Amino acid sequence: MEKMKEALSMFASPDPELRRQAVIEFAKDGSAGPLLQAISDGDWRVRKTAVDALVDIGSEEVFEGLFKALFSEDNAGARNSAAEAFVKIGPHAAEALCKRLDEPDADVRKFIVDIIGEISDKASIPALIGMLNDPDENVRASAIEHLGKMKAVEALDTLVQIMRTEDQWLAFTAAAALGEIEDKRAVAPLIEAAEDKYLREAALDALCRISDESAWGVFLECLSDPAQVIRQVAVRGLSKVLMTAAQKGLYLASLKSSLAGETLSFLSSCLKEEDPEIQNSALHLIGEAGEKTLVEDAAGLLLLEETREAAYSALLGIARQGVEPMLFLLTNPEALIRSSAASILGEVGDPRVVNFLIPILSDENGHTRGAAATALGRLGDPKSVQPLFELLRDEYDDVQEQAIAALGLLRGAGLAEGLKDLALDEDADIRRNVASLIGLLDGPDASVILNGLLKDEDPEVRRTAVSSLGRSGPSNIKVILKAVTDEDSYVRLAAVNALSEIGTEDVVEALVLLLGDVDPWVRSAAARGLAGTGSKRAVETLMPLLKDSYGPVRIAVVEALGETRNEEAIGPIKESLRDSDPEIRKAAAGALMNFPGAELNRDLSPLLEDDNWSVRKAAVETIGALGAPGSRELLEKIAGSDEDDIVRESAARFING
User: Fold this and answer.
1) Cβ(212)–Cβ(241) under 8 Å?
2) 217-221: long-range contacts at Cβ-Cβ below 8 A with a sequence spacing of 24 or more?
3) Assuming Cys at both sites, which of 178, 521, 552, 621 could form a disulfide with 186, CB separation 3.0 to 4.6 Å?
4) Helix (H, G, I), strand (E, B) or coil at 411
5) What does the alpha-carbon distance between residue 455 and residue 182 come to, in Å, rounded to a whole number?
């Protein structure tokens, strides 16, 4: 009682923060009366706090109080707060408000319609359709608008009838609503409405939303309309139809024949509009039509983020019908335009452009040099090899990488000879780049280069060479084996990974040897690699490493034993469930998931009481995945009692399917 007295005192304060605190106290007490009074407060924070509290209460008293506030002509804050509360209450409020649509005050009826529409509950659609016969035009217009937003197909026929009436405002609103509904049954009436100069814009905009092919002719005709806004809608419509058309050929022929004179000038002007939707639509049409005269205009839109993707696609479409316009863009002052032109020429694949791209490898901009390198790699002309070698010295790593990738695609004459010289370069970075490419070579030249790289003084060069050879496949196993005894642990690790990637029986002996390496990361990688070979020797050779002094090695071995899926591995993995290291216990629980036929609940259930939550979660995951008899009971117990939210949720997922 004292708190309520204090709250009432605070509620009368001129300080809005004190009034807001009072509202919070009223909310705790569930006092709807003061809260309803608070939605008339002059401060928006007080009103918002009251609205949230009233929504939580949601009683009949609250509903009636909020409804009464809709009549507050002199207090927009109260009216808007009531509407906000009704919307937050949702479908229940909409259902009740649908029964109040017979209010004599037209403004209140419109307010109710707006609230129902904002709630957007499908069950309210019949009531809104009924309001299309309301005597007040504003109410009817509001109902039309909301039926469109709710995509009420049930209202389609009535909306078409309204669109055909002489009331231009309602007809315009109905046309817009039909576009929102996006039902193809409205296409024919909308095409008819597009003949009316007062409805043309709304009808065309609706047709644009629906994007039906039957509207193509209307859009094409409107490209020559005297009104700019109509021509712009036509551009959007033509673009939308082309995007969704199953067969574009016939439409493209008529589009190309239309792009001349004033129409072409208008399309050019669309590229200069501030609306990205108009610009992107125009770019789409230009690209589809292969309109070469607008290449420069389209290229300029590469510089804007909102139009960059559409501009690139347009230029690519033009280039596919002839690369000549793109060649001029290679000398554009803007680096982004030059690099885009180079990329486009590479995508198109016309071999004649090689001589134009090679000079771009010396461009002042790194992105442009890289784009030219990638394009030349795609084009596959051997004459690009020597110029691309120069980029292996580029100041930017990413450009070097693009040159390496391009040379990797070429594999042409001169590659081996060029690499042979560069493999002796004083710069270790250059030798490393050569090492990245070495896996592409074979023959005597390759052997010479390989022997040099695997003895290079720089361990990074040796490591890169080994990794490159691993990617090239089993043919280089003998060479990779030379790196198994390298003095640098990272080189040996690269050798392990390369052998593991090959994964044939031929690499088993080397991986077994590397299980005894002095470096724990090498031992760990060797364990995983050996399991991946599927060798029968894997289990017996891995088991001794379960006593390794280094925890990550034991984790890798446990996981590797699981990956073998050999039943002989189950026993050693079970023993690891009792390891003192929680990470190993977790790994063991996860590894047992590889044995679906085994009865493991008895072994895993002690882990459900483990001190470490991640161990318990791993046990839950395996028990749930294996689904052995009795699993559900174990999981139900965990789902209802574990102290950790994540563990409980994991168990619940399996219980609930």
Assistant:
1) yes
2) 218/191, 218/194, 220/254, 220/255, 220/258
3) 178
4) coil
5) 69
